Amino acid sequence: MANTTLAMMQAIEAEAQAVLAGYELEIDTLKKQAEQDLSALAQAYDQETTEEVARQEEIAQVELERLRQEIQATISANEAAVREALTDRKDDLVQAIVEKVVARYGH
Predict the structure, then answer these.
(1) 105: closest CA among 89, 91, 97, 92?
(2) Residue 5 Cα to chain centre, angstroms
(3) 49 pLDDT higher than 90
(4) pLDDT higher than threshold 90 for residue 67
(5) Cα 69 to chain center, whole Å?
């Protein structure tokens, strides 16, 4: 009877070990699957991020070019306004310079 009980306990233990091994195998399989899924998700996210960065860079380049053209137009307009103001006031400026020279150094 002692042998029978011992044999039965050993059989139960062997079954428990088999069940435990099955669970551990399933856990490992699920863990690997989760890691693969996470890796695939990370790659997809990286791809989306890369594409979005490229789109935003393109938008920024277009905006930068627009701003450069706007600045150039403003500079040109300002230079033209300065030239016009200097041309219109040329006689006044020359007269003012002559008056200052005469006032300082005499006739």
Answers:
(1) 97
(2) 70
(3) yes
(4) yes
(5) 25
The token pair that represents 35 in the structure block: 């890691």
The number of beta carbons lying within 10 Å of the beta carbon of residue 25 is 10
- Taking CB atoms within 8 Å and a gap of at least 24, the contacts of 49-57 are none
Q: Which two tokens stand for residue 46?
A: 């990286």
Q: Which helix (H) or strand (E) holds 31?
A: helix 2-88
Cα–Cα distance for residue pair 76/82, rounded to 1 Å: 10
- 72, 79 contact by CB (below 8 A): no
The domain limits of the chain are 2-105
pTM recorded for the entire structure? 0.53
Report d(CA 46, CA 89) in Å as an integer. Answer: 63
Both structure tokens of 66 = 């627009």
In total, the chain counts a number of residues equal to 107
Answer for the pair 27, 21: CB distance below 8 angstroms, yes or no.
no
Strands (E) across the chain are located at none
Q: What's the whole-number mean pLDDT along residues 79-96? A: 82
